[in-house]
Specification:
The complex is a heterodimer.
Chain A: H1 2-11, E1 14-17, E2 21-24, E3 34-43, E4 46-56, E5 61-65, H2 72-79, E6 87-92, E7 95-96, H3 102-107, E8 110-112, H4 125-132, H5 141-146, H6 149-166, H7 184-197, E9 202-206, H8 214-231, E10 234-238, H9 242-248, E11 251-256, E12 259-264, H10 266-271, H11 273-293
Parallel strand pairs in A: 5-10, 5-11, 8-9, 9-10
Antiparallel strand pairs in A: 1-2, 3-4, 3-6, 6-7, 11-12
Helix pairs in contact in A: 4-7, 6-7
Chain B: H1 3-27, H2 34-59, H3 67-89, H4 94-120, H5 125-143, E1 146-151, E2 154-159, E3 167-171, H6 185-203, H7 206-216, H8 218-223, H9 228-251, H10 264-277, H11 282-298, H12 306-322, H13 324-337, H14 339-359
Antiparallel strand pairs in B: 1-2, 1-3
Classes of the chains: A alpha/beta, B mainly alpha.
The complex binds adenosine-5'-diphosphate and magnesium ion.
The site of adenosine-5'-diphosphate has 11 residues of chain A, from β4 and α2.
Chain lengths: 294, 361
């Protein structure tokens, strides 16, 4: 499976677009899902992200990598409007996100997972996904209280959709389990399912493979591609596992001290001396050390 | 057992207990002592108060210390509307008047719920608790200054102005006098059923899940597009409406009522019901509100030690329901009755574990 992924990745032709980004050739005629221009944010005196320019194609799998503290999660927080940027602009499907809040970002098609898992851990797995479906399968409060026909119809629809989404990861039999009681890897997968339930056009995954064993990571890679193919959405992921990043990401963006130091395909990034210097060499050591410890 | 069935059983048990209690009380009504009889309607009101506060504290996860304020608003608007209907429109039908009064109480409390919710729900945690406490006290102090009367068909309201024309219904700090005692136990029972239906159906619906999502993880809830303030507001205002209706019923059960009756210690009392019943547990709120409302009366015989015993019982109950050690004991006791059942559950969980292992080659 790993081989097919690599081949698929190698097949992708990346084409330059304005603002010095690249997107897959197949996404060329289409509106890019995300366009960041000169995005930046300061926390007091600290500039966490500076002059961040990126275009993500409609069905691209993009990677955002960089050492710890580089500002990767902060970029996600900017895209999901947890923070209002100090400078620059973000366009989602051609719409300027200026003045939007997190809820609006979700409605415009951005969904995410969290580096430190944020599930509704006291609730069942199915309810977690149903909450993700909140704006997709709707009925009003009166229908819920009076148990009107809309309630029964939409509840069934929610159940069916939730099960369908859970089955992507083979989790359809875990619907009644408490989310917090799931093993770590399953919690990460559930977060992805919940994000998918919001019917996004851009799925942001913050270290989705953290804490997973190599086998789970391999499965995750297959599933990320499956999700992209099935839902025809873009995926942007932050990850330290270089096998995963180089294996499935078409365009990769390297961040260091809040600035983009390189952009390109996996091959280009691997060959780039600045990246190797600033990140890959060092990070590889760290990865190997972690590997032997575990 | 699957989660849906568990919920269904829980809801049925809750309704079952309430209906059973009502049937029992109605059939034993003749043989009840006077003081117990007098407590039936207040118990209904406090149950509604506890269940509705539980919606805010347990389900939306915000500590509100001003719930008695909404009860007060409901009580006095209910009394005023009832008096207005009687004196202005000669509406003799007591049931109709009670229904209108309760609707009015719920409406007024709901409106104030929105007005108070807008600033309060921007706050979090301790700040929210303190500000709700303040609003509860503000409501009481404002009620001390409100006067109302009926002149002909017209309702006249005055603020800090006792000299109103016509028949006085509300007399500032002296509250409502010569109120028609039109509350009935049946109405209390129906109000409980309505409250349980609203709260339990709400919890098991899209809206309720959104409310619980904002409680469990605010950031995650926002990330899936849930408007946190809106859903906190829905819980807060729904609870206010129910408290207002309970207040109207409560107020119309006495011939006089002063605003000082709804001090902040009443809010704390309701909170005690909720905490003792188990935060988020509706049936628990029903039971603890009943027991704790009756307890001081039942302990009347030890009149000198009454409050002492009450306090000790409170502490004991809290220890029993809220410490891990005692919960473990309780679980063991439960386990003795359910050994077979438990065995099956263990097998079931092991089963899923194996299946999962099997699916991953
Ligand atoms: N809310 C915040 N306030 C102040 N500093 C922050 C905040 N969020 C992130 N930072 C800082 O921004 C930098 C980037 O953090 P982060 O985006 O989490 O890094 P990464 O995800 O790449 O490891 C860090 O130095 C961090 O301390
Ligand atoms: Mg991070």
């Amino acid at each position: 499976m790993s081989e097919t992924i690599r081949r698929r990745n190698a097949d992708t032709k990346m084409v330059p677009v304005p603002s010095r980004s690249i997107i897959p050739e197949r996404d060329l005629g289409k509106m890019p899902v995300l366009e960041c221009q000169h995005l930046g944010i300061d926390f007091g005196g600290l500039t966490a992200v500076e002059d961040f320019n990126l275009v993500v194609g409609k069905t691209e799998i993009a990677g955002l990598i960089g050492p710890n503290g580089a500002g990767k999660t902060t970029v996600f927080n900017l895209l999901t409007k947890v923070y209002e940027p100090t400078r620059g602009s973000v366009m989602i499907n051609g719409i300027d996100m200026h003045g939007m809040d997190t809820v609006a970002a979700s409605r415009h098609g951005i969904a995410r997972t969290f580096q430190n898992i944020r599930l509704f851990s006291n609730m069942s797995v199915e309810d977690n996904v149903r909450i993700g479906l909140h704006n997709q399968v709707r009925y009003g409060m009166p229908s819920g209280i009076l148990r009107l026909p809309a309630y029964w119809k939409k509840e069934r629809e929610q159940h069916e959709k939730a099960m369908e989404l859970l089955s992507i990861f083979g989790m359809q039999d875990m619907g009644d389990m408490q989310a917090g009681s799931l093993p770590y890897g399953a919690q990460r997968r559930l977060e992805i399912v919940r994000a998918l339930a919001t019917n996004p056009s851009l799925l942001l995954l913050d270290e989705p493979a953290a804490g997973m064993n190599p086998h789970e990571t391999q499965e995750l890679m297959d599933n990320i591609i499956k999700i992209r193919d099935q839902f025809q959405i873009a995926v942007m992921l932050i990850e330290h596992d270089m096998n995963l990043v180089m294996g499935i990401c078409e365009g990769i963006c390297v961040l260091n001290y809040g600035k983009i130091i390189a952009k390109g395909t996996a091959e280009e990034i691997q060959r780039n001396p600045i990246v190797v210097e600033a990140y890959l060499g060092k990070q590889k050591d760290v990865g190997e050390k972690e590997g032997t410890e575990a | 057992m699957n989660a849906k069935r568990k919920k269904l059983i829980y809801n049925s048990v809750t309704f079952g207990i309430v209906i059973l209690a009502y049937v029992l009380c109605s059939s034993l009504y003749g043989s009840m002592s006077r003081s117990l009889r007098g407590q039936l309607i207040p118990i209904c009101c406090w149950i509604v108060m506890a269940v509705s506060l539980n919606l805010v504290v347990g389900i939306s996860g915000e500590l509100s210390l001003g719930h008695a304020g909404f009860m007060s608003l409901g009580a006095f608007s209910g009394i005023v509307v009832s008096g207005w209907m009687l004196n202005g429109f000669q509406m003799e039908n007591e049931i109709l008047r009670l229904v209108i009064a309760m609707a009015a109480g719920g409406l007024v409390a709901g409106i104030f719920g929105v007005l108070i919710g807008i600033p309060v729900l921007r706050l979090r945690g301790d700040y929210l608790a303190i500000v709700t406490l303040a609003f509860g006290e503000i409501i009481r102090n404002v009620m001390n200054c409100v006067y109302a009367s009926v002149e002909g068909k017209r309702l006249v309201l005055g603020f800090l102005n006792p000299s109103l024309p016509g028949k006085l219904l509300l007399n500032g700090p002296n509250g409502a006098v010569s109120v028609g005692k039109i509350a009935t136990f049946g109405a209390g029972f129906i109000l409980i059923l309505v409250t349980l239906t609203v709260v339990l159906n709400l919890i098991n619906s899209r809206t309720g899940r959104a409310i619980m999502a904002t409680r469990d993880n605010r950031i995650a809830a926002e990330s899936v597009g849930i408007n946190v303030t809106k859903y906190k507001m829905i819980a807060f205002v729904t609870a206010a409406v129910l408290a207002g209706m309970a207040g109207a019923l409560y107020g119309l059960n006495y011939s006089t009522l002063i605003p000082g009756k709804f001090k902040f210690d009443q809010s704390i009392n309701v909170l005690v019901f909720v905490v003792l019943g188990g935060i988020g547990n509706t049936l628990g709120s029903v039971i603890s509100a009943t027991v704790l409302t009756m307890l001081p009366e039942l302990l009347r015989e030890f009149s000198d030690y009454r409050m002492l015993v009450y306090a000790l019982l409170l502490i004991a109950m809290m220890l029993i329901t809220n410490t891990p050690a005692s919960r473990a004991v309780l679980n063991n006791v439960k386990g003795m009755f359910r050994r077979r059942n438990l065995h099956q559950t263990v097998q079931a969980t092991q089963g899923t574990g194996k299946e999962k292992g099997g699916r991953q080659p």
